[in-house]
Structure formats: C-alpha cells, structure tokens
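Open question from group meeting: does this chain pack into something compact, or does most of it stay loose? Before anyone orders reagents, we agreed to write out a predicted structure and look at it together. Recording both the input and the output here so the notebook holds the full record.
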Amino acid sequence: MQLSKHFFLHEFEKSSTATRLGIKNKAGSGEIKNLTDVCYEILEPVRAKFDEKPVIITSGYRSEELCKAINSSPTSQHTKGQAVDFEIAGVSNLEVAIWIENNCSVDQLILEFWNEDEGPNSGWVHCSFVEGSNRKQVLTFNGKEYKNGLPEAKWSKGKFKN
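Structure tokens returned:
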C-alpha cells in the first residue's frame, strides 16, 4: 500500500526482529492513517529538501509485541504509527534534524545515538507527528542520557561541515 508519493506501508512494517521471532507486525487502519500523516508532514518535505535522496526507514510501525521483544515501551509512539526512525545516506543526521526542527511541525524530534566523533552519519533521526497536538520537543540522546535541543552545528562558507 502506498502512503505517499515516495513511501509504502511495507517500509514501516519491516522488521528483521519480528521476522526472526515470528511476530506479526501489521499496522491497523488507525496506525496507517497516522503513518500517512508522518509521511506528508515530515518525510516528504525532508526528501524534497535533500535533493530527492532516498530516506531510509530503520524503524517505523512496531506492534506492542515487537516493542516488548526489543525492550522498547509498549506505549511507544511507534505502536500508534506516529513515529519513524530514519537516515539519508550521505547526509549528516544532525543537518537533517536541524532542518526538521526549523521547517516541520513535530511532536518529538530526537537525534539518537549521535556522536560527533563517529562522523556525520552516526546514530539516526527519530521523529513523530501527532495531528493537532504536537509538543515540539527536541532532544539529543547519546545512548546514556537525553539532553534538550540539538548539538551546535559546524558551518563553513554557508554549508554544513562534517
């Protein structure tokens, strides 16, 4: 099922853990509606901004059973189809997160497992959208603790460095 111009439901439901453990990871109609919102409000604008480079979804919809299997909260926004984790090959995750913070309406934006010493593609971007009630919460998670906001970006001659 196609959710938007560039995104399909199977991208959000795919999970090697679910496959390996025989867990059903299929979104219902409410979750599909929320995933469609995530596509239109976050992922499509991101893809357009970054020269139509493919957005690689690393985690989308997660059933409660899958969340339990990976030690995630069974009340995670992923279980509601409101959240997505992703990257864009060759584009700094920090640059993507900064752009989202400044240009998209989000419930939560987390630069997860970001480590500047590991290079621009360390970690990934977690983003969620809740129609009508976005908190606009922006965090960085280094694997141990959450901090408010994003790290300071390094710019050179009007371009992102790293």
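Observations to bring back to the group:
The first strand starts at residue 56 and ends at 59.
The mean pLDDT is 92.
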